[in-house]
Amino acid sequence: xxxxxxxxxxxxxxxxxxxxxxxxxxxxxxxxxxxxxxxxxxxxxxxxxxxxxxxxxxxxxxxxxxxxxxxxxxxxxxxxxxxxxxxxxxxxxxxxxxxxxxxxxxxxxxxxxxxxxxxxxxxxxxxxxxxxxxxxxxxxxxxxxxxxxxxxxxxxxxxxxxxxxxxxxxxxxxxxxxxxxxxxxxxxxxx
Amino acid sequence: xxxxxxxxxxxxxxxxxxxxxxxxxxxxxxxxxxxxxxxxxxxxxxxxxxxxxxxxxxxxxxxxxxxxxxxxxxxxxxxxxxxxxxxxxxxxxxxxxxxxxxxxxxxxxxxxxxxxxxxxxxxxxxxxxxxxxxxxxxxxxxxxxxxxxxxxxxxxxxxxxxxxxxxxxxxxxxxxxxxxxxxxxxxxxxxxxxxxxxxxxxxxxxxxxxxxxxxxxxxxxxxxxxxxxxxxxxxxxxxxxxxxxxxxxxxxxxxxxxxxxxxxxxxxxxxxxxxxxxxxxxxxxxxxxxxxxxxxxxxxxxxxxxxxxxxxxxxxxxxxxxxxxxxxxxxxxxxxxxxxxxxxxxxxxxxxxxxxxxxxxxxxxxxxxxxxxxxxxxxxxxxxxxxxxxxxx
Amino acid sequence: xxxxxxxxxxxxxxxxxxxxxxxxxxxxxxxxxxxxxxxxxxxxxxxxxxxxxxxxxxxxxxxxxxxxxxxxxxxxxxxxxxxxxxxxxxxxxxxxxxxx
Lengths: 191, 393, 100
Description:
The structure holds 3 protein chains of 3 kinds.
Chain A: E1 5-12, H1 17-30, E2 34-40, E3 49-57, E4 72-75, E5 95-99, H2 104-107, E6 117-121, H3 123-131, H4 137-148, H5 153-167, H6 173-188
Parallel strand pairs in A: 1-4, 4-5, 5-6
Antiparallel strand pairs in A: 1-3, 2-3
Helix pairs in contact in A: 1-4, 3-4, 3-6, 4-6, 5-6
Chain B: E1 3-7, H1 9-20, E2 24-27, H2 35-45, E3 52-55, H3 59-72, E4 77-80, H4 82-87, H5 89-97, E5 103-108, H6 122-126, E6 133-136, H7 140-154, E7 163-168, E8 176-181, H8 184-191, E9 207-208, H9 215-247, E10 254-257, E11 264-269, H10 272-285, E12 290-295, E13 297-299, H11 303-310, E14 315-320, H12 331-342, E15 348-353, H13 363-378, E16 386-388
Helix pairs in contact in B: 1-2, 1-7, 3-5, 7-9, 10-13, 11-12
Chain C: E1 23-24, E2 40-44, H1 55-58, E3 66-67, E4 70-71, H2 84-88, E5 94-98
Antiparallel strand pairs in C: 2-5, 3-4
């Protein structure tokens, strides 16, 4: 488990947190790492809180449990702070990234005394600006890559372009918007 | 050159199915196995394979159609989970007793009730006496490798039994992990073409399948079926040896992990074995002599081999991911204990139940199991001989 | 040879039985003398029979052979004596007799 980075995603069913976790696994895989990306389903309904996880390591990953002491937490839906203990087990030398228009200082009092790094990103606003709709998962994916340094920006953008061309083969018009969302997120994620 | 990829367990099994291109797949969707028929349907729609997909109105019909297609002489598969397999119950026995080769991609999920979509082994463990070969996987790689080996075992002339290739629902079926895939042509050459000696659609040799058998025939027929299961032992190992030659990946009835010199061992099946391995490495660093026996083949049950691999230990914990409701433990613990008794092993054996309905099992819990075993032996502490891991009390 | 099912009987060893009791070869039920089960027997009064041939298709055991538009004698090797032929005959040409 040495050198394994553990990431926990909090979202609501339908927001793409699971997809983002799988995309992050994809990206890390491309850098030659061993990866895991998996969801934990609760009531399996749109809007219900869901959790997704990533492990990224230089060595084969054998553990098949959920993640309780993550290095990073990504909160795709701000309204989960409170109903869900998003910083549970989060390492103090790690970081939490929250999708919110507010600043890290405004978020900190809501996080049960968490004293580690807090990053915020208005992923909703970026998504609406670039895609015309609220798909916060692409910007949040860029934010976790930027914060964790799993991959360098240029290589990440290149991989994502390839990935989107594959994923949106039948909807090429959305590729540019998604790429812009990633670029903005990389720039705007703030500590 | 192996192909480096990252796939979920369901994708991995679907990938193997595409490479094998079976003749017929009747299927009915149920979480978490639904993706498998979805992927196969996509392969068919894209013209990548020419499998005949039969949408049916229930799992009972899925297995019935699979039985009919196998009797006709086709290479067949279906996929299901949980209540879906429960609805196949009657037909599972029919497939096995009629000696019809076919593959079932089972994605293990708890049975109702309470209704639950997550992993445990109560579906396949309930079907352990149906006469099917059962092979389990720790991760997506093993699920893929087991499926590639499945038809060679099931269709072997000395076996001719249906085979269940099991993996843990969501934990491996929906988890994307690294995997090494085998080239299409190598898989095709390895699996080969299905050429049954007798089959219904052979006009040169008319035949009947599934006749009524009176009492003077029934027991003899069952013994013959049991012998096929005995033959399956050798065939499973032979196929694994050929598979190792092709891929370098080694498979047997079970995997021993740091077991050779272990004082304390866990016996278990499936994805949680990887978590136990991680706990073992941590405990070994602290000087604890602990190990794991991870069962791959549950039917036929390699009881004697398991007992011999465990007999040198002071104590073993047998972890079942299904409740047996015999008021004393699950099916795996009963069978392992039976064989330890048979060889007069002095090893103490304790039964545990874990992971029901998707309850998580962590390295912390694995370490606690080893601690209890050591406490029982070293300090003579009485520990419950049958207990639930992670139960709120 | 396991596929020769004529060699399989109630005293066969289990190793001589076919896997899954599969039966190899067609029309094997001919070899099974179900006529032995009969407790009443159909009798044809040829003077009343008009060869309407309604009896032949209703026989569950195909025991009424038809050749060139005429029904022939009952196949008593396989007739179980169910009496359906007698029941449906509108001409009173078939009656059931007690015993073989």
